[in-house]
Amino acid sequence: MMWARRFSLRLQALFLRNRSAKRLDDEMQFHLDQQIAENVAAGMTPKEARYVAIRAFGNTTYLKEETRDTWGWTWLEQLASDVRYGARMLRKSPSFTTVAILTLALGIGANTTVFGVVNTLMLRPLAVERPNELAFLENAHYGPSQSFPNYMDLRDRNHTFAGLAGYRISPMELETDKGAVRIWGYLATGNYFDVLGVKPSLGRFFHQEDDVHPGASPYAVLSYGAWQARFGGDPAIVGKTIRINRLPYTVFGVAPPDFHGTELLYWPEVWVPMMMEPQIEAGNPWLDNRNTWNTYVIGRLKPNVSTRQTEADLNAIAAQLTREYPSENEGLQFWLAKPGLVGDFVGGPARAFALGVLLLAVLVLLAACANLASLLTARATDRQRELAVRLAIGAGRGRLVRQILTETLALSLAGGFAGYVLASFLTQALSRWRMPMDFPFQFKAVVDWRVFLFALFASIATAVIFGFGPAWRASKADPNLVLRGAVTGWGRSGLSFRDALVVVQIALCFVLVSACLLSLRGLQLALKTNLGFEPRNLSVVAMDLALAGYSEERGRAFQQRALQTVQQLPGVESAAYSNSLPLSIDQSHTDVFPADKPDLRPSDRISAVYYQASPGFFATMGIKLLGGREFNWHDDAKSPPVAIVNLALVKRLFHNENAVGKSFPAYSGHPVEVVGVVEDGKYDSLTESQQPAVFWPILQSYNSTTTLEVKSSLPAMQMVGEVHRAIAQLDPELPLYGAGSLEQMLGYAFFPSRTAALALSAFGLLAIILAATGIHGLVAYAVSRRTHEIGIRMALGAAPVQVLRLTISKTAALLLLGSFFGLILVLAAGQVIASIVYQAHPHDPLVMAGVCVTIALLGLVASWVPARRATRVDPLVALRYE
Amino acid sequence: MAKPNDLVQGTLDLLILKTISLEPKHGWAIAKRIQQISGEVLQVQQGSLYPALHRLEQKAWIKAKWKDTETGRQAKFYSLTAAGRAQLEKEAANWNRLSAAISLVVQTT
């Protein structure tokens, strides 16, 4: 009861403040009236009675205030009045308010956007039960991929996992009402969904017992998206038969809408039990092959088991596996990585990139804050009179600081909100964007409560950290001096607080512009990189014959017929086919051995990227043949095995000797004769150092994955259309994918450079805008403050040039100083920048020169208008002023 | 004669609680009553009663009601709550103990 009464009294005091105040007046008035009446009764004159009564009562104003204090809402009342007063002051100077809010909106918006990306890549867990218990397995040999027999041994022998599941990203051919389409899915072990603890939104998932014998589990689980898009959300889909790779599969169930498998950037459309691998990857069975490392492994740790214990457990098994299968597992070692980004393989660079960009984004925010602090300082100087008056009539210094901080906080919250809205739009745009490639690369930057908290925290921190200095300085104004007309806080000699802020801003701008130009230079270098082939005028079309049910024999025949048909199309200069292309997402590696190391010890092996190519491949691709010959139609199964190698592999295999005609042991140990040597190129990524590469004749080593390369001067889309029609005549059912110009397909390879250039250019631009407003503000303010002085100088005969020098010289000094600090920062932060920008180095003289020119131009442009205004000061007007 | 400032806050609270323990009173009557009973020794500065009254009301030891006085004008009448009565007993006991102890010290030479 007590608390209820207290609470209701408090609420009354809060919400009925005016009524309560009125009541208090009444109460006290009643008291006085009673006393006056008594005094009059005692014989005083009314006037005297009144006087005595008031004296006995005391200072009413003070007592009322003290009484109101007991109501307990003083701080809130003060806050409300601060906010009201602050809002009035901000409304009174709309240009200041607009500039401040915009500055913050840009700074906080940029940061929140980047944080949204970081949130998606690093903070948001997978949409599964207790995601923090999950761990992804990596090994010393092949990083994220394990061999399937090794996976089964790990699953059965470990003591630290509650469950260990394997999965594999696989393309499949799905038959729909609209014909066969190529889709991407997962092969997953039977325990996959149970280990993750996901609940189906329809039907059921498959379990361990559904995934025991190879080829005996024709079941499928659809993703929610695939169910909607491919089957129109058919409510009776469970139990129906769908056809994948031309074989029937029973639909068990549909996954929940927010579950997209165990990789953040890859959204599969279907899950099929792992035992169907031989059917899904027709012609390439590897379930019992310890030499094929194709399986990703994710596990749920038992409660209270540490990472270290788990790794020790895994490595004990690794030691056993090495003893049991020395040739496959020598040197095997495991460690755990965070799941979601193919372990550290993609996760490492992606996280480094995201953190690097976040760091630069924080620099943008700092620049924005420096701008804000500078604006606030200028404003405080302008408000010195007002503040001095308030101090003079008894306002406390703390109260004054609080008032100014409240104002700053209101500003920064408004700016933060605008920034948050901006970031929401930007992340949505980012999420909608699709890379032009045949892979369901999904990036969904999610703006959730973490992002909101980030924006809120950034706003409040900004206000407190950068508002406090100016507020404190303002509150120290000496009323005596200010009210007499002397202006303090704006020294003409030496560095003022605002000058220092501009220096900071220029230094930050220098860093960001450096990063921006570096990334552009990196992109330029990437575009100029010698790819080792000539993508111009090349169109490509891909198909997978095994998925379409072709046997090897029929597949070979089809490939050759398709090539002949395409070669006869009008406008085709040359054509060829291969299993894959350099710099596409599908790269395979094989082991070969130096010619003088025929005993095939694992320590001698050379990992080389390999391609299976048809005759005419090198001519069509524009890969320069340095020696020997191309493959021809006689390099088939009936003739001895041959290969074409690149220069980097020649170095490793034969130690630079002439290689043509020599033999080396291939992966299986059989000798292969080198018939040709080609130039080096880029295979996995643009930034790799020279990798060994080997080309096998596709006639000697069949691959059902077929990419047709067509060289033609016709526009790529027209050519692709022709090829489509030609293939459709051979097999109307066969789905084609990855069709387009090769230059367009290379988007994947240029993705990192493009992303870096885009992100950093945005930051650079923001930094330039911020620095320009900062410098402009400083110079304009200085000129307006010194109008009087300039007027006197001009009256005494100063030439405009001298006046110009007066205003420009200081700006120039600040620019130099800021650039100097910026240069030091860039050199010190070279590592961070290098993690974002490939290829270009911070010491690139072209870049440094570019930065200096940019900063100089920036200073000139930003101070030009106010400086010109200074030279146009009319001494008469200036001196009459004030 | 005690000046208002010399009245310790707790003492003023005790006086107020005691004064309204028999019947509800408005502020002026409370001030009057304290002066009368103490034989004009305790001269409370009348206004300082109000912050104290409001503080006690916030603590829910006393409650207030606007009622008509004999003159027909409305006034705010304060009365004890159950918690206030308990508080009065506690503070009165405290006071008795303290004053007895002090008189002992003062009388013993």
Report the structural category of chain B. alpha+beta
Rg of chain A to the nearest angstrom? 37 Å
- Which structural class should the secondary elements of chain A be placed in? alpha+beta
**Percent of residues in helices of chain A:** 40-55%
Fraction of residues in H or I helices of chain B: 40-55%
Low-confidence stretches of chain B: 1-6
Coarse shape of chain A: elongated
Main beta sheet of chain B:
3 strands, antiparallel
Rounded mean pLDDT of chain B is: 82
Apparent shape of chain B: globular
Low-confidence sequence ranges of chain A: 488-494
The percentage of residues in β strands of chain B lies in 5-15%
Helix-strand sequence of chain B: HEHHEEH
- How many strands in all of chain B? 3
Q: Roughly how many Å apart are the termini of chain A?
A: 66 Å
Number of helices of chain B: 4
Count of DSSP strands of chain A: 22
Largest interface: A-B, 28 and 24 residues
Explain what this protein looks like in three dimensions.
The complex is a heterodimer of chains A (882) and B (109). Chain A is 54% helix and 15% strand. Chain A is an alpha+beta fold. In chain A, helix 5 (74-92) packs across helix 15 and helix 6 (94-123) runs antiparallel to helix 13. Chain A is elongated. In chain A, 43% of the residues are buried. Chain B is an alpha+beta fold and 109 residues long. Chain B has a three-stranded antiparallel beta sheet with strand order 1-3-2. In chain B, helix 1 (9-19) packs across helix 3 (49-58). Chain A binds chain B through residues 2, 5-6, 9-10, 23-24, 26-28, 30-31, 33-35, 56-60, 63-64, 66-67, 69-72, and chain B through 26-28, 31, 45-48, 50-51, 54-55, 57-60, 63, 66, 73-76, 81, 83.
